[in-house]
Specification:
- The chain is mainly alpha-helical and 149 residues long.
- The chain contains 5 helices and 2 strands.
- It has a two-stranded antiparallel ribbon with strand order 1-2.
- Helix 1 runs antiparallel to helix 2 and helix 4 packs across helix 5.
- It is rod-shaped and about 80 Å long.
């Protein structure tokens, strides 16, 4: 889609297609449209926002996985609910008050990940253990190695 420049209506006036008044009204209409004001762009700041979101999601996932035994079932549940409500409140604030779609999307993703963490973690799961520095880190679930037949 081609963009209309201010010189385009002026050229139409020169060619006799539009009057000067019509060209001014057309330029005013196009300049006042919301689509003209918001143009999608990608900046380095967006990369930083996504990176921060990935760090937050990874940290919260690790925290809930490692802290599950210490918090217990209800403690983990209330922690997940608190972080989920906080993430959704920030999502609402970023969208409604600040019109920041990218950070709002990152916060909404964090809320979804927290709910998924709650669903995946069960009180009878064994936490991650590393029995020896030379052995790999296994995630044990109900006495079986995760992913094993």
């Amino acid at each position: 889609m081609t963009r209309l420049q201010r010189s385009d209506p002026d050229r139409a006036v020169s060619a006799g297609i539009l009057s000067a008044e019509q060209a001014d009204r057309l330029a005013e209409f196009i300049g006042a449209s919301p689509a003209a004001a918001v143009e999608p762009r990608f900046f380095f700041v967006h990369v930083l926002v996504y990176l921060g979101g990935m760090i937050a999601i990874g940290a919260m996932s690790l925290f809930m996985t490692l802290g599950w035994n210490a918090l217990g079932g209800w403690g983990g549940f209330f922690t997940v609910v608190c972080y989920g409500v906080l993430a959704l409140a920030l999502t609402h604030r970023f969208i409604e008050q600040k019109q920041l779609a990218i950070p709002a999307g990152v916060m909404a993703t964090l809320a979804v990940v927290m709910v998924n963490n709650k669903r995946e973690l069960r009180p009878n799961c064994t936490a991650m253990r590393n029995t020896s520095p030379s052995r790999p880190l296994y995630l044990l679930t109900e006495g079986r190695v995760a992913g094993a037949g």
